[in-house]
Amino acid sequence: MQEDVKKAAVEIREVLSREFFDTSVILGSGWSDAAKILGNGSLTFKVSDITGFHQPAVPGHDGSVGALSCGTLNVLSFAGRTHLYEGHGVAASVFRVAVAKELGCRSIVLTNGCGSTSMKRGPGTPVLISDHINMTGCTPLTGPTFVDMTNTYNREWRSTVANKHAGIEEGVYMQFSGPQYETPAEVRMAHTMGADLVGMSTALEAIYARSLGMEVLGLSLVTNYAAGLVTGELSHSEVTEAGKRAAGSLVGILETCLKEAP
User: Fold this and answer.
1) For residue 86, what pLDDT is reported?
2) Can you say how many angstroms the Cα of residue 47 is from the centroid of all Cα atoms in its chain?
3) Does residue 236 surpass a pLDDT of 70?
4) Which of 7, 73, 152, 238 has the most crowded CB, counting CB atoms within 10 A?
5) Residue 125: phi, psi to the nearest 5?
6) Where do the domains of the chain lie?
7) How far apart are CA 78 and CA 93, in angstroms?
8) Domain 2-259 - what CATH class?
């Protein structure tokens, strides 16, 4: 993978006309509209034209890469990600993280759309990830790569964001492998185990980022109540619609996360 990472970094430097970046953000389901409002850059170059990348298969993940200016920081922005369930392997799921590190990023903001395991947090609620539970059965690490995960999601960074956005909550995120949504029984299990949020991304990326020495901030948007909490069937369209409705309110939080990056 490392050879492709180096090639991808060279190509991104060329198309974005920037040598290095300070921090990075991966925009998950529901977050692209907020990033477009934040603006100050272009999110139009398709990652499928760059070595090592796969075009995301999920609606709402347009698969572009761009440069944002946020305060004094140069931000590398990925609209969409490659999920584990797309079948390209774990390395593809963390490829964006590896490229961000190669381009000089000291930190990364990982965003996602997720389900809530309780009625306390409804659709449209932003949540800072305080910790995660990896239920994929996979890891992006090989060999005796013993990485301390005690402070996976940087406490000081989270605290700064929380101080500037009164009322924003924290929660534990559980990553399932997908692509099927969780069953009601799995949601009850997740809640019993301490998970406030469930989804199909983020944990593997966070693990890999920490292995590279990057600081991590996780930011979830609750897009739906998880299975079994309310009547009706789950669909991806409700995820994308929740993101569109919440876009305006998410801009300030996302901007703070990026400006306060270590």
Assistant:
1) 94
2) 16
3) no
4) 152
5) -90, 120
6) 2-259
7) 13
8) alpha beta
The one-letter amino acid code at 223 reads: T
Name the token pair of 114: 């997720």
Residue 242: which pLDDT band, with cuts at 50, 70 and 90? low
Beta bridge partners of 114: 222
Confidence category of residue 61, pLDDT binned at 50, 70, 90 = low
Q: At residue 85, what is the residue type?
A: Y
Distance CA 224, CA 144 (A): 38
The closest alpha carbon to 122, from 160, 169, 61, belongs to 169
